[in-house]
Amino acid sequence: MNFFEERARQRGFCLIAGIDEAGRGPLAGPVVAAAVVLPDRYTHPDIDDSKRLSVRCRERLFETIRADALAVGIGVMDARAIDELNILRATLLAMREAVADLRLVPDYLLVDGNRRVPLDIPQETIIKGDGQSVSIAAASIVAKVSRDRIMEIYHRQFPYYNFFKNKGYGTAEHRRAIREHGLCKIHRRSFHIKEKIQKNYELILQ
């Protein structure tokens, strides 16, 4: 998990930030990005792609990463920004915000996916990087836990949708709640929620 970090250091870079996001696919809530700068040659046996980890493990590693990292930054783009910009642009801007939130200025970025962050910093994109780079994996955990906590706050404001459980994703329960109660302010209008629900509902009736 250190291959990309070590290769960057061999090229002369010192402060390497891994960057990842959480929340591109849900029907509601923000997209959250994280940037993490780890110490030189940092390893941890449990840090991995957040999707492979249990909730309890992510929560524990979140605290470990916050304690061990040289710097951690968070960027958030809400549903309104996603609707105005589109999800891809909003995600890249959240990543840029996460880098700006770091207390140290990185000289190299390792970015999950195939899109560069709009910054004049040398960077490398890595498809499925959260399973190959310890820095990106750490960022994936921080982004996921941070977003989950935001959605739990929204759950208290909008309990009908059970954001505590579904975190804004389009589960059957969540779609039923939208049919019954309509959309709230954190739903993403640009995701054509009503059309998707109508299509699913028609399939159920057939």
Please compute the radius of gyration using only Cα atoms: 18 Å
Would you state the CATH class?
Alpha Beta
- Major beta sheet summary: 5 strands, mixed
Relative helix content: 40-55%
Q: Biggest sheet: strands side by side, in what order?
A: 3-2-1-4-5
The arrangement of helices and strands along the chain is HEEHEHHEEHHHH
Report how far apart the termini are.
49 Å
Average predicted local confidence, pLDDT? 93
What does this protein structure show overall?
It is a single chain. The chain has a 5-stranded mixed beta sheet with strand order 3-2-1-4-5. It has one domain (3-156): Nucleotidyltransferase, domain 5. It contains 8 helices and 5 strands. The model is unreliable at 200-206 (pLDDT under 50). With 206 residues, it is an alpha/beta fold. A hairpin with an 8-residue loop joins strand 1 (16-22) and strand 2 (31-37).
In short:
The protein has 206 residues and is of the alpha/beta class. The protein has helices at 3-10, 55-68, 79-85, 87-100, 134-157, 163-166, 172-181, 193-205, and strands at 16-22, 31-37, 71-77, 108-112, 123-126.
Layout of helices and strands:
Elements: H1 3-10, E1 16-22, E2 31-37, H2 55-68, E3 71-77, H3 79-85, H4 87-100, E4 108-112, E5 123-126, H5 134-157, H6 163-166, H7 172-181, H8 193-205
Parallel strand pairs: 1-4, 4-5
Antiparallel strand pairs: 1-2, 2-3
